[in-house]
Amino acid sequence: MKRKIIAGLIIGITAVSLLAAAVLGRGGKIDYGKPSSDSAIGVIRISGMIVSGTDSGGLFAAVAGSESVMEQLRRAARDPSIKAVVLRLNTPGGTTAASQEIALEVDRLRRAGKKVVVSMGDVAASGGYWIASRCDKIVANPGSITGSIGVIMETQDLQGLYEKLGMDPVVFKSGPHKDMGSPARDITPEEQQIFQSMVNDMYEQFVATVSDGRDLDPAQVRKLADGRVFTGSQALENGLVDELGNFYDALDIAADLAGIRGRPRVVELAPEHSLWEAVSRIKVGMPAFYPVARQPYDLLTK
């Protein structure tokens, strides 16, 4: 009985703490100082795994939805007072398609005459670097983790587990490859070639994107594109980032690129969330490379 009471108190205190953090965090804005210019810099934050859809979150991980990020980029493009955008990246990567969607909107934003600068936080790797490579400037902390230019697919072989559980999956399919990658059977040599061809195709897309965005020779990109990660300082030596600095340095660089005189207004473009959304977005002890369920076609950090 005593243990139940203690456990209940711990749960209650945790719940109250989370609720208080959410309430205090709602509407909380960074003080950027009093602006001396009417020109503005928009700030868009990409945090967590990059996937198609809208932003979502939970107690242990956040998800950056491409639709939410694209909407913010388009708002920046439509606002004549916003002369530049700083993308604050803190993501280990995500799906290929979602990264491509965001990168395409970055390209369009730049064609609209807006400067785009990346500020890397703890990590901006794989799909995060795909997006960063399309920007005017990339600013990283010396200890930021970036790179991971590569593609990975995974499936699980659960035949041994099914056998232990006494399960015998029965599959009805319209074609020989409809259950390709099923954990209930071996992958055939032909299917291995199909999967590898998909990985190779997405890899070539990644190399081409970085080569074009960073103005690097494809051969030079390939030397760096073996899936490895780099620190910010290593990335600078290899031409993957432009400068070392923090978020405020990125704001200064964006203002300079946009020709803004005086202190610009800084506009956080992320929408405000309800109390429940704020509670759901609280993250507890999320490591830099947290485990995720890897889906086919995912472009993730190795």
Q: Mind explaining what this structure looks like?
A:
- This protein is α/β, with parallel strands linked by helices and 302 residues long.
- It has a domain at 31-150 and 218-300: Alpha-Beta Complex (2-enoyl-CoA Hydratase, Chain A, domain 1), CATH 3.90.226.
- The protein is built from ten helices and 13 strands.
- The chain has helices at residues 2-25, 66-78, 96-111, 127-132, 159-165, 189-214, 218-224, 232-237, 247-257, 275-280; strands at 40-47, 49-51, 56-57, 62-65, 82-91, 93-95, 115-125, 137-140, 145-147, 229-231, 243-244, 265-268, 298-300.
- Strands 1, 5, 7, 8, 9, 10, 11 and 12 form an eight-stranded mixed beta sheet that branches.
- Strand 7 (115-125), helix 4 (127-132) and strand 8 (137-140) form a beta-alpha-beta unit.
- Helix 2 runs parallel beside helix 3 and helix 6 (189-214) crosses helix 7 (218-224).
- The longest helix is centred in the C-terminal third of the chain and has 26 residues, at 189-214.
- The chain is globular and about 70 Å long.
- The model is unreliable at 20-28 and 281-302 (pLDDT under 50).
- One of its GO terms (molecular function) is serine-type peptidase activity.
- One of its GO terms (biological process) is proteolysis.
- Residues 109-260 form the Peptidase S49 domain.
- Belongs to the peptidase S49 family.
- InterPro entries: ClpP/crotonase-like_dom_sf (IPR029045), Pept_S49_SppA (IPR004635), Peptidase_S49 (IPR002142), S49_SppA_C (IPR047272).
